[in-house]
Amino acid sequence: MKMDQKFLVVDLDACVRCYSCEIACRQENALSLVTQSRWCRVQTISPRKVGGELHLDFVPVMCLQCEDPMCAKFCSVEAISKKEDGRVLVDEETCIGCQQCIAGCPYGAMYFNEVTRKAGKCDLCSSRVDSGIEPSCVQHCIGGALRYVWGTEVEELAQGRHSVQVGRTYYLSSKWKLSISGQLNQSPPRERHA
Amino acid sequence: MADESCRICGQPALPSGMKERVIRIAEEKGIVDASSLLLCRNCKLKSFSHKLVGGDLRKVPRAKLVPHRRTERLEPVKQDSRLGTTVYKSECFSCNQGCDAVVHVKDGRVVRVEGDASSHVTKGILCSKGLASPEHSNHRQRILYPLKRSGKRGEGRWERISWDEGLDTIVRRLNETEEKYGKDGILLATGTSRGWLLPFYRFANAYGVQYTAPGTAQCALPRFTGSTLVGGTRFLENPDYAHTRCMLVWGANPTSTFPAKGRGMMEAWIRGAKLIVVDPMLTETSSKADLWLQLRPGTDAALALGMLNVIIEEGLYDQTFVEQWCHGFEGLKKRAAEFPLEKVSEITWVAKEQILEAARLYARVKPSCITIVVAIEQNADSLSTCRAIAMLAAITGNIDVPGGNLIQMPVPVGLWLKADLALNNILTEEQHERRLGSRKYPLLSGKHSVSFPPSAFNYDAWKAMLTGKPYPIRAMYSQGSNMVLAYANSKMVLEAIQGLDFFACVDFYHNETNRWADVILPAATWMERDFVTCSDQVSPDSAHLQQKTVQVGESCSDVTILNELAKRFGFADRMFTTDESFMDFLLQPAEMNFKDFKRKGVIRLPWEYKKYEKNGFATPTGKVQLFDPKLESLGFDPFPGYVEPAESPISTPELSGEYPLIITTGGRVPVFRHAEFRNIAILREIVPELTIFLHPETAGRYGIEDKDWIVVESPRGSVEGIADLTPGIDPRVVQVASHWPGKSNVNLIMDNEKCAPIVGSAQLRCQLCRIRKRE
């Protein structure tokens, strides 16, 4: 855990599938319908009975800012790089739109922008963050599930709960023993259980 | 190309030729298993999220740390150097609640709308609808100019006209109708409105013409009336989430429908406050509940009475408060005793233990608050339901205490004093007598109506249009109402509209209702007009600023349209010369004008609890009224009771033989508001079609599979949508969302005749239906 870096924390308990994050993202990054780019997606785990009670869960998925990003490995022109501060960024100038990175991302978080003809994905709202404003999905999250916090606070939030770290993203739950085993490219995946 | 298709679902996954490249690169980079890369995006997202959550349930205490929300200093107008925009502080009216928002403008267009981080109400959040507002303001389908019909009615051919011609035509045609049929020949109509209800009511009363609105009988009026009869104010609208320890959320899903409340509720939940949810469906909210009561649709009043009975019998009520501040406790005790657990469980389908636990939890954990919205207003006896729930808050001493349900502060803005400002006082006895529905539904249409100025009962209005009885209605002026989708029994509504001599509408877009209009006037959205907002539903201690940021086409604020009509009708003195003079009028009690308010941006009062201790409750007795003298004097039951839905397996067993399932309609999704925003592409992408929820067992019986198109039928017609199979609904119940257009309009099959007593709400949450797979 890098205490002096910021992490995106996704508290699965608190996600209420309001889709504010999705639309906030599209607005901040000018992703109209025709771009066919939805960098932030809320997934629904359909209602199911476990332990005698019904559960309905939602999982926001955006670029996890991997430690060793597959998209970068698949990039044909080295347009994708992992930055010092943990962010994985696509250099639009360099990108030739070959789409190999889109196939290479195991999470489905990389998009081909049909308007710019370049690859694109969540960059944790770099332009906002560089001006000292938190990412738009975090600000507008109604449930309080998305947080953009320092490493120290991640520890505090994860205390006594199930958590999984993938790159610069932390998923938390008070119900499910989270797991990412079997997912590509986590070296090594950090799974912690309460 | 089959080769490039998804390994799981078979849909196209990769661009042509990509598969080989992926496998080659994977080999080069030493990636052992590249199979997860050969999936389409949806399957990648699905597989990741399912793998992440898994099925290993090991509950631990949930988080206690409430999110730090972004905060900012209040500035009504500022420049954003990062985006090169001018930023206006305003109030989002994507729905009618009003969340503080900032509007970014560049080159005369709205380019961005975000939550206002200076807001004490929203703490910077905004919902998907609000965030999509630029698409609304700039939409290519917006009606930009006044239009008159150029082809046959309903043909959809329009001709641009001037504002003068549009307004003059409306006035001339309505005057002609009045000459022939009197004022009774005209009906005014409004939808949920976006802040302008007060000027609309004022206009209707000054004009002397009756109005109707789905936003009264169907929504807001029963619950406002319920808590006003009980406690003198709409206190149930304001749960004090910031200080509560227990939340009873009744027929509501505020994170989807009431963003500012949803935020408060979730922060309390994260803090560890208990959550009890009453809902027939597993929803975003009920899935978070510590205790979920999955009741039979329409039986809420019985459940509330059952809980009251437990609380009274077990002595869990607040004795001091009841003795000092409640009127009619002994009578309520007697009434509640008629609802023992056994009986309530049988009526509601909720297990006895759960009812007991809910009642104990709500009464014992102090302070507790109640959240209600529209669902409880659309059942067999909606007023009893709303009153009984209000009484739960009352007898447990949870009114206007920290963490309970709050009474609005006297914010010094005219809107707060609605009743007087709407000019209800100029209505004559004869007008009250002649208003449609006034006898049968006195608290909706009669002079005793509370919360809203009396309005015509809509079923009687359509009847009057269709049959001329009790008197003909031949012309209608509608402001912001897509009536064909918004009212039950759409076929009747449509036929009534089609037969009118004259029909004028004010709206943003063409729709199924204004298609039949003779004149359409273009309305300004909330981003394109000034207003002062003061809603007890979201900000009971403050008034907020809405600013005009851009001009779109020739669109015009609803207030201006009403003022201009009033001038032409000759009652300008009752209305206002400009929007600004109306705002000045509203702000008189605050001793400022709109120009001052624009610099200030917000008026906020310091909060005071237990305000009733000073002047008592604003009821005739000055106390909380468990016994209602007004209802008794009108010949109704002075205590809340339970009646079986007009259509149900119990009340209509023969009908239930043919239509064996209970249909409950109106469950909302977060991306739409009523009939609005299905034309906003990025919202529609999220929920593209009508979803019909049913249990897999039920689906199995009819040979229906998940995502099949199905048909739901009632004696009135049929509606089509996509089946969503969920174990989160009772196998005897089908849930169909409302307000979808065309064949997916559920109101095509809903009854509008057998309505709740006293307030006339259609029983939209509890009718009967049958289903089949669409051929």
Report on this structure.
The complex is a heterodimer of chains A (194) and B (775). Chain A has helices spanning 20-28, 70-74, 100-104, 126-130, 136-140, 151-158, and strands spanning 6-11, 41-50, 53-61, 80-82, 88-90, 111-113, 118-120, 146-150, 162-166, 169-173, 190-192. Chain A is an alpha+beta fold and 194 residues long. Chain A is 19% helix and 28% strand. The model of chain A is unreliable at 185-191 (pLDDT under 50). Chain B is α/β, with parallel strands linked by helices and 775 residues long. Among the domains of chain B are: 2-53, no CATH class; 147-219 and 417-440 and 455-530 and 552-583, 3-Layer(aba) Sandwich (Rossmann fold), CATH 3.40.50; 239-395, 3-Layer(aba) Sandwich (Dimethylsulfoxide Reductase, domain 2); 653-773, Beta Barrel (Barwin-like endoglucanases). In chain B, the strands form 6 sheets. In chain B, strands 6-5-16-15-14-7-8 form a 7-stranded mixed sheet. Chain B has a 6-stranded mixed barrel with strand order 21-25-22-24-23-26. In chain B, a hairpin with a 2-residue loop joins strand 23 (709-714) and strand 24 (717-725). The model of chain B has no long low-confidence stretch (mean pLDDT 95). Classes of the chains: A alpha+beta (194), B alpha/beta (775). At the A-B interface, helix 1, strand 2, strand 3, helix 2 and helix 3 of A face helix 1, helix 2, strand 4, helix 10 and helix 29 of B.
